[in-house]
Amino acid sequence: MPAAAAAAGICLAVSTVIFALRPNAAGEPSVWLPLVRRIREPFLDRWALPGGPVALSESLEASARRNLLETTSLQPTYLEQLYAFGDVDRSPDSRFVSIVYWALVRPEEAERVSLGENVRWFPADELPDLAFDHNLIVEYALWRLRTKMEYSRIAHAFLGEQFTLAELRGVHEAVLRKPLDPANFRRQMESSGAIEPTGDVVVGGRHRPPKLYRYAGGVELADAGPLTARVVVAAAQHPSTPIAAPTQEDHR
Amino acid sequence: MPAAAAAAGICLAVSTVIFALRPNAAGEPSVWLPLVRRIREPFLDRWALPGGPVALSESLEASARRNLLETTSLQPTYLEQLYAFGDVDRSPDSRFVSIVYWALVRPEEAERVSLGENVRWFPADELPDLAFDHNLIVEYALWRLRTKMEYSRIAHAFLGEQFTLAELRGVHEAVLRKPLDPANFRRQMESSGAIEPTGDVVVGGRHRPPKLYRYAGGVELADAGPLTARVVVAAAQHPSTPIAAPTQEDHR
DNA sequence: TCAAAAGTGTTGGAAGTACACCCATGT
DNA sequence: ACATGGGTGTACTTCCAACACTTTTGA
Q: Which region is the signal sequence (chains A, B) (predicted)?
């Protein structure tokens, strides 16, 4: 970074791939994402990832957060940087470099999205032709989501603070698109120390009442190494619970 | 990316963390990296990662490659994007966003670096106070290198085209900083299908001549998912062998 | 009492770890 | 012959996948 890089003519933007679980045509939960319709050239009327320019006074992540709120009114429970896309030909006219984030939101949160003419949910596996290189970006984000689901603990970012093991398993199954053995899944989760029973059970179901679990604090959800502090999961926001230090931006 | 982001005042730069194996004070191989001395403010005279502005006509990776060649005359065998750093306060004066890459080079290549007053190798584990947030960046790059070494096949990027199993194990041991069982290491490598014997052996050693291996083609070294084509390892450059399509930039 | 989901137990195989042991070479 | 690293064999453990089986509820 020696020279005071003028970089005139390069536009710096932030985009986000937002994932939520919603029922598909068959009624089973699967991965969806919201897209916005472009209202100007290039790619007028094509669907695209929500995004926008980086403000001078904002960090990249703060930019992504603000933009998400403005364009989709979503506040993700999980937000992580995905990749920087900067090929010269990704936009036909000017030169764009996009720092792309990916986010997870809960179903309740997802349903709050204002479904106007210009924002719509799409199943992540059957997208139309998107603007720019956004098809590739989504594909990569999906790959990261699925890869990370297998070795990390991000699944609960799709759920509320309390959940049953069947719900948690449902998240895994929806993302990985394969059935999981309930018995083995239970043992893996329990032995990992990631979850702990709340003591409550869900009453009123048609069958044996399942125990409720919560994520055990103190356990990192997604090991990002020295950048761990950057990966922030919003504290479960009960109306009564004050939010504890939501975004500590210090480096370690 | 809807608005034509002016982003005036934000400087876009590319930096690279370059790793090579060199003998440390005790004579054992360990991880080193070259740094350049800053010749202007801010952080005048402090050591920093090599880097520079992104040219309008270059992709991010091409920018990193060119800059590496200009500042250190290095051509890495492995180059991958690490992270985009863009906190508002990382540079005291202007606003910098740095797309950081990490690279691996072979020892022979590393020794060719012009060791002037302004370029010097440092042991990766004992760095001075660097310019900007470069200490954090190196720490993260080291974490990625060590993590990836355990589940991927990047080790041979530190070696030539042919190598013995002891050499390959030495790379792992140097990076992971722990001894590995030669017998088990051999079996893991052989059963993974990543390497194949060339049929030759190393003669002239003091002991039993070890077999030489090469990396089996067709096996991906580092699974980057849909972005695989972006991770490019230079073909082993025999003087006689023409370089085959060194940088295919297409997306998949 | 039956269906269905919650939860437990048991088994077999794959892969990792530790370590004993043989092989081939230069000195 | 012997020291040394190259290379093989083997027992032990740990983890994971499969699946039989018991428990608890609503209907």
A: 1-20
Buried b (16+ CB within 10 A) or exposed e, A92-115: eeebbbbbbbbbbbbeebbeebee
Assess contact for A101 and A95: CB atoms under 8 A. Answer: no
- Residue showing tokens 């972006």: B230
Q: Write the pLDDT tens digit of every residue in A200-233.
A: 999 988 899 999 999 987 655 566 778 875 444 4
- Candidates B1, B10, B135, partner chain A, best to mutate (most A CBs within 10 A): B1
Residue B146 lies in a domain: yes
Q: Which of residues 189-208 of B touch strand D (CB under 7 A)?
A: 201, 206-208
Which residues 46-75 of A have a C-beta within 8 angstroms of B? 48-49, 51-54, 56-60
Q: Which two tokens stand for residue A235?
A: 């504290």
Q: Do A144 and B227 touch (CB under 8 A)?
A: no
- Which residue, A223, A195, A225, is CA-closest to A211? A195
Q: Is the peptide bond before B42 cis (omega within 30 degrees of 0)?
A: yes
Q: How many domains does chain B have?
A: 1
Determine the average pLDDT of the residues in B232-246: 35
